[in-house]
Automatic annotation (TrEMBL), chains A, B, C, D, E:
Membrane-related topology note: Multi-pass membrane protein
Signal peptide range in chain numbering: none
Transmembrane segments: 301-321, 347-366
Underlying gene: corA
Name recorded for this polypeptide: Magnesium transport protein CorA
Superkingdom of the source species: Bacteria
Subcellular location(s) of the protein: Cell membrane; Membrane
Annotated CDD domains: TmCorA-like_1 (cd12828)
Family statement drawn from the similarity comment of this UniProt entry: Belongs to the CorA metal ion transporter (MIT) (TC 1.A.35) family.
Function: Mediates influx of magnesium ions.
SUPFAM superfamilies: CorA soluble domain-like, Magnesium transport protein CorA, transmembrane region
Length: 372, 372, 372, 372, 372
């Protein structure tokens, strides 16, 4: 029996807060990378990307209200950056903690002159399997900050659309850009679920062709991943709903029509997850019933063979006994001992009896349907 | 053991949005068919169907308020058609996206001077099994648009009623026609569920007569289809409720009594789905207990046969041993070796002992109830 | 093994609407019986039953407000009767559809000058098992209509009370009579559940005495019937609640105290159903664990017998080998071949060794607890 | 295998209303006992118990508002008593029905000048197992009636506290006494759950030491009893909540602080029930996995023994064949028949081969981990 | 098969109220320890800890409003202490009961001039496994009381922060200190869950490497602990919510931002618990399927060996029969008895036939995939 290759289930460990640390403390993980900062300046007719070394003094530069600004921060390994955010931009420390402790649930919170939001990017990485990363947003008038801990993400299509400038993306203002990024992330969920849906179809095909024990492992792996998606999609839906219902000044009313669309997408995601979970469960049920059936088949083979041959062997054993007609020591003659052995057609009759026993049993098992 | 024929589970793949595409973009699937457009003009006394090549300039024609108009569009493969809808009819782009991405949940949305609704048609196609298609509605005063991606549907009875003109259908206005179509679709769910209900009854009969492993596959297939219906019926119910509670100018108050009826039907559908799911589950439980029982039966046969004959064979084996009373080499006489073989009725006694052992075992198994 | 008798699970098929038929169309099933109409005229001091041929012109007769009238209609096979209801009594066509399509959920609806309600009668018929029939009510001032498709029902006790005239029944007005009928129906649920509760107790007893596979079938049958009751009891409860909260002129305020009592009964029914479902599930769990245990017992017998006798048979087999001490062809003497056979106490020692092996194994299995 | 002793699962049958009987009819069960009536007269400084024969004329006696009165009625077998309640105390007949049909859920209802409440006493009786009895309350100003069908209950500690007079019990008024009784009943639930919690711990210990099939029965019994407690605790909680929210004149505001405490206790009960249910389920899971594991062990023993000795027996069988080197009839010499039997070390070599086969198999099974 | 070491599942028994005791009675468990009282006096610039013998007269000392006071009470074995609380601080007796009966659910209650709250500390003790202890709070202006029954807790980090004085902790007032303690406790839940998450990963690894029956026990143990956490986390979340929504004068508005953060943490805890529960369930499913698969493997070995060798042994048995060609008694010659034994190549042919049977069976099993 082939051993299943250890499945690549990426364990999504939590970066736990060190218990008892002060709330509102920026937490920089030892694996954090150097911040990589891009400043996108754009409006309907203008587009420019600048790479920045740090964000000091940036606030003073971003005064022209005819432009929108997207400050994209990747990597948190710079204490001074967060200090600047507190000092220059007056961001609450609890928010900075939420940004750096990247295990937040999706949420949307208003803080007066800025809004804070968290999305979770799920995307499949060739090497590591499902990636589950946090993208945090701070939205304040025409400035949008995004924060992510690693360089990899799934946001390039939005960056491209921003560069090309087609559609609403340069016209809609900063809240539209935030929506576009959030929607991109939700769209990526569809891609992820699509991959697993295909894998489940493959597993189903294998169930019919050659069910082996990897089916169990593979299905369980998908089931766990589905749990991850569901855990993300429900608060994501709530977040969209919160944005829909807010009357925060940061969120453009025109953007809300789009948010409602994204809200619908979240519901579809939850729907798909539930369906895929039920399909997984049904695959597992099927697999377990296949194992049981197979056991039945194995036992049938054993029982048929044993039931036929054990009694026959017994008969053969009887006529292999050495009961003697004449005691070699005393010379006494005992013709009543095993006279069958000396009958004219004793062997033939024995073989016929054996054959009959076998035939009767075969018929019995046949009628029980054990040969089907 | 017969192999189950691969079941025809139509995989309802999702036409996924290409992630990162602009929201509100019309999506034309590569399998989309050429649009096939019918214009129904009718009132209480008048009925006419026109086949149209395109919908350009249509708005200018449909000005007579004494008629109702139903513009039926099948097939989306025409970009210009959607552009006309935006230009002439002023339809929001997000709606056009929803129409063309045919994986929407049933819903009802008001957009001021028109309403938008989605129904999902479920019907059983001889070849492909369960079909799950989207019918989208745009309702604006006395004009009703319907959109579907394929030519096949389950709406002919409504078309016939419209032609014959009996009942309310030509009097009730466009919102009544929309209701009639929606109700037709929900009624079709009953037909679909009826088919499966019958199949489940058949499976139940097979459970009693000849349970084999196709039962598992067939039941699982029905279970999945039931999941599809439930996923459609819940939002369908919500949609009906939304229409009931709206005060949109598009929905005639008189139509609402009928909508309430359709709402009741949705609840009955959900009820039936839950019942059928429980029956499926109970069939599977029954099947698994039958497998277990069968295993018990198989093992009983093996155990009875083995337990009786293995000890007997052992006894036969003993008297088949060649312990000798006289060493042929040394000539030493050993009368204590296997004296039974030379006793007067050794063979008879042995056979009696064997018979007794067998009888004792048969009685033992009989009293354990293993022969029942 | 005894074959379970095919259980009498009455399949509650739905009389499906022919899809696409106009809403509000009276539906007369092909099995419908001729209407059988009784008119009960009563007040505190008066009681009379009249058998009617049809209900034409009835409205004109029932003008005396000092009497209450109950028009009991059994059997729907008369189109003209329904037309009279529409014409004379001005009943909405959708209601007539609901009356004739007898798969409605319990409900209560107000239509201005009359109220409409549906109850579902559940009662056990000796022959057919659980009957699930619809009783529809139209209540308008001092006139109560009831509609049922078949002649059999469970309402005789109410008819008797009405005739005898004890208690509130002739004083309480038409809404009290409606309550009395509804309450009778709910009381009958208790009887039905009581029957199953007893059957479940019997099944439990059989689990202890002689568990066989009919247990599974019988329990599943009860489980399905319980699902039917639950599907009826929940909307029944909602119906009672709706009547409690209505301010319809048809419902006497004094009757509401009684309705609240009936509402409590519904909750008790739901409670009992849940309990019985849990007991069914627990019986099934128990049965499955008994099957597993029995399998273990069977395997233990096989393993003990085989483990003891197979090695012994092997030893007997060794000494049954014909290795020869003297080649009969060449005459060569080989005293090293099987010297045990010619030892003085070879046979005795062999038997002792065999006995020891058996004893060791018995002790081993004993200590493993396999004999318990 | 030991047979489990039939467990003492007291079947809580329902005293069903005879269907169709008038609502509001007092129901006296045939097993009802003669009423046993105590009148407690008490205030802060006074305490007296009187045994009464009947309650006629009692109302006229209980006029002194400086005392509180508790009329405790045990046993319902007196129609006249209930008639007095209707006549003198003006109690609604539906309430009397609820009192005598002792299968009510816990509830609290206001009827203007008196309040009605139901509690369910759960306590463990040495002989009968779990008792589930109804205690009904009628509270009207400074008079509290309690009704119970049997003499046994779990209320003695409250009677003692009332006699001793410590704490709030004589000061708090009649609504406090009602609370004290209700709280006593809820406290008794803790005792009951504590007993089962201990039993579950014992079962868990047996799972580790000697798992046998009584585990299944005992756990299922506890599970059913837990269902009973849960069915009582939920409406009990709702009742407490209803009392908390009422503005009935019967309930002293000061008592409500205590009711809130009792409400908390109900939630803790529900909590404990859920935990114990999960522990039961986990015990059953564990037991089933132990059965499966044991089956594996049994099969391993069988397979190891059979796999080793069946091939060896076959080899012994070969050399037990009687192929002859010389036809005794024709005298033809056939030295090619079974020459191994006549080789110099034929026997030794055979034994070595057999030993090798056994060793190889033992190693094979060892490496498969079957000896662990 | 190795026996699992009895797992250290600490049974969380409830200290049950002695039923019938007066409500509001302080309950001192026989295992209660002597109270150990610390008074922390602090403000932004000042910090001092005093060890107190008792709390008599304390109220008179704590009058300086420029300081905050934390009175930490560990151990309840002093009736006089509780009396002082009633007398000096006017604390409701029901609260003292809740403090001393340490099985309360987390809750928050306002009592006018003080607030009462309960948290449950969960932490893993090396020796005893999961500890589940109650920490009760009484908050009144600038004085915070905490009560715990044992000396051990998980609050040292907060004490350290208070001593060091960094961050908000000395500035935020008494309600902030209460928050800090509560948050510390919730943070500790993360640590606890982290430990189990790691253990579940280990179990998963063992599933792949050497699945044995300890997996079941270990997973069930974690599952039960998870139930404990969930039972604590839900009311903890509700408590935070209650504090958020209160307008009690005791709770500083500025503290509420932090409480909202702690509320988020509670939701994350519940989330994690659900995930870990699903992972546990999936591990158990996996384990059970591994057992089933292993059974299949065992049975395959048995069936292959038996099916091949039992028929062969039968053939060997046939040729071991002693049918004789010449009756030693009568001297009659019977050449038709077992002529195969005397054929020229009888032995060779027999061996070939046996080999063929074996080969056919091996091919049969091979094609069935039983060797994989």
């Amino acid at each position: 029996m082939s051993k299943p290759t250890k499945h690549k289930h990426k364990k999504h460990r939590y970066v736990l807060p060190s218990p008892g640390s002060s709330p509102g403390m920026v937490f920089i993980d030892e694996n954090s990378v150097e911040p990589h900062i891009n400043l996108y300046i754009y409006n309907e007719n203008y587009y420019k990307v600048e790479h920045l070394e740090n964000i000091e003094g940036l606030k003073q530069r971003l005064t022209d209200k005819t432009y929108n600004y997207w400050i994209e921060i990747k990597g948190f390994n710079s204490m001074s950056m967060f200090e600047t955010l507190t000092k220059d931009w007056n961001i609450n420390k609890l928010i900075l903690e939420d940004i750096t402790r990247t295990y937040q649930r999706p949420k949307y919170e208003e803080y007066g002159n800025y809004d804070f939001a968290v999305s979770r990017m799920l995307f499949i990485d060739e090497e590591n399997g499902l990636e589950n990363e946090q993208l945090s947003f701070i939205l304040t008038n025409n400035v949008l900050f995004t924060f992510q801990d690693k360089y990899e993400d799934c946001l390039d299509p939005v960056r491209n659309r921003l560069e090309i400038g087609k559609g609403n993306i340069r016209i809609g203002g900063s809240s539209y850009l935030m929506y576009a990024l959030m929607d991109m992330i939700v769209d990526e969920y569809f891609t992820v679920l699509g991959t697993w849906s295909e894998q489940l179809d493959n597993i189903e095909d294998r169930l019919f062709e050659k069910p082996d024990k990897t089916i169990m492992f593979d299905t369980q792996l998908i089931k766990r991943n589905l749990i991850t998606v569901r855990r993300v999609a429900w608060p994501e839906r709530d977040k969209m709903n919160d944005i829909l219902r807010t009357d925060s000044a940061q969120i453009d009313e025109k953007t809300k029509v789009y948010i409602r669309d994204a809200y619908d997408h979240c519901i579809q995601i939850i729907d798909m997850v539930e369906s895929l979970k039920e399909i997984s469960a049904s695959n597992i049920d099927m697999y377990l019933s296949i194992i049981s059936n197979r056991m039945n088949e194995i036992m049938k083979v054993l029982t048929i063979i044993s039931s036929i041959f054990i009694p026959l062997t017994f008969i053969a054993g009887i006529y292999g006994m050495n009961f003697s007609r004449e005691d070699p020591v005393t010379g006494k003659v005992l013709p009543q001992n095993m006279p069958e052995l000396y009958q004219e057609h004793g062997y033939l009759y024995t073989m016929i009896v054996m054959g009959l026993i076998a035939v009767v049993q075969v018929i019995y098992f046949w009628r029980k349907g054990w040969f089907k």
